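WARN no homologs supplied; continuing
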Amino acid sequence: MTQTDKPTILIVEDHPMISIMLADMIEQLLVNSEIVVVDCVEKARAANAKPKVLIADLDLPDSKGVNTINTFAVLFPDCPKLICSGVLDKHLAREAERAGYFYVNKASTYPELLRTLHLLLVEARVLNDAPRLPEKTTNEYHSNIYAPGSDKPLTWKQVEIMRKTAEGLSAKEVAREMDISPDTVRGHIKEIFLRLGAKNKGQAVEIFIRVERKARLLDS
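OK structure emitted
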């Protein structure tokens, strides 16, 4: 690949925080690329892109689970593909891998996610085999969700926990979906209270929804 080539990276993700994070990680690994972000299968189809790499959420507004896997396999048969899912489902992971996808859980640590993206880009032949990964890999990714007046953003994992909590899931249900212990979830929630300046779960959810909505508006 020459210096003038700009490989297209297509990200299909309906949650702005996640798409921002993925684009940021791609830009760390691949300096010269064109990143296209859409939030559903229909827009991915309409974009008429010829991506070198596809990164997609498993559950989108117009496609869920195995249907997402099969649809993108047909739409983009020739490029390496990654499913980045917030739901831990071993059956779906096997289905994705059987269809030739890379598969990673959104609850993975920042280094794990970056390592998977690195392998994906190497597979697509848009990145050399063994570049030095950025120093940022030593830390968990921090989102741009801040409470008013706070200088401590939530981590990506904490954003995912709050999304599920806001949907009404209990600590045990969140733990089961993210394949972590309930005590780990509760520990994160306590830290989230501090970062959001919340006194209880209800207040934390209220603040989270408000600041996430603001982030969506800034991203639009």
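Residues 131-141 have pLDDT under 50 and may be disordered.
OK
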